[in-house]
Multidrug export protein EmrA
Amino acid sequence: MVINKKILVGVLLALLVAGGAAYKYLRPAETGITATGTIEVTRADVMPKVNGYLTGLQLKAGDAVEAQQKVAKITRADLEAQVVRDEAALAKAAAQLRDLEAGPRSQERQELSALLDSARSTYEKARQDYERYQSLYQAGAISLQQLDTARSNMEVAYGSMTAANQRLSLGNEGNRPEAIEAQRLELERSKAVLAASRVLLEDTVVISPINGLILSKNFENGEYVNPGAAILTVGDMNDCWVKIYVSSTQLGLIAVGQEAKVKVDSFPGRVFRGEIKEISQNAEFTPRQSITQSERANLVFAVKVQLDNAEGILKPGMPADVVLK
């Protein structure tokens, strides 16, 4: 009975080996252009526009982000203070413009009118005094010096009355158009300065440029970062492709829009549909990973085969075999 079992096992093994060999030699071979590449996705670095200390970064590799999503913030107290300063300057410029456009208040006009009345009264008294002193001088009652003093007092009073009259006239006319226009331009300048300061402050917010998954995280909270430093790298998993190389002798057999079959080692037995999206216009030498020297000597063209990754199961770096029909 034991011998029969051994014989049975041996027969089964022989049948399996024979079946495998038969499948290998009898199965239908893949037809078309075959090439090997790796899965790639569109990548974008999340970078700050200003320098400073990083805060508010709660994401990690593998997390999903959306385009324009806030992912972190750069702490800049000086930019916040700058906005407050420019807001105050704008409010001051606006108040000054309103004051110039409104002109003197009624109380100010009344004050100017009262000053003119006072100056006129002073002048009338000085004029009367001078006339009286003229009579006294002619009668020999006062000296020439006293007469000159009276005349001088009258002239000073007249000048004060004239100045008061001009101030009242200016008050009634309001401020000059040139002064109002200059202040209006100052207001517009203050608005522009404030807008620039606000833009700088808004740039402290770090946002993701695309939808996708975080492929790598390069900084942590509290670290000092410079403009253009890649805080995170995001990959758009929906924009997925395989980059392969096709020899110049086979270039005429393919075209943009042509269908392709893609097999990935991580999913054996499954075929993914692909489509040629781009064909390079410039020839290059076969990449160094080619097997033989003769292959490396051939000129090839890069071909981008787009993949449908709606399930999100294809990841960057996965090796893939492509068959172009």
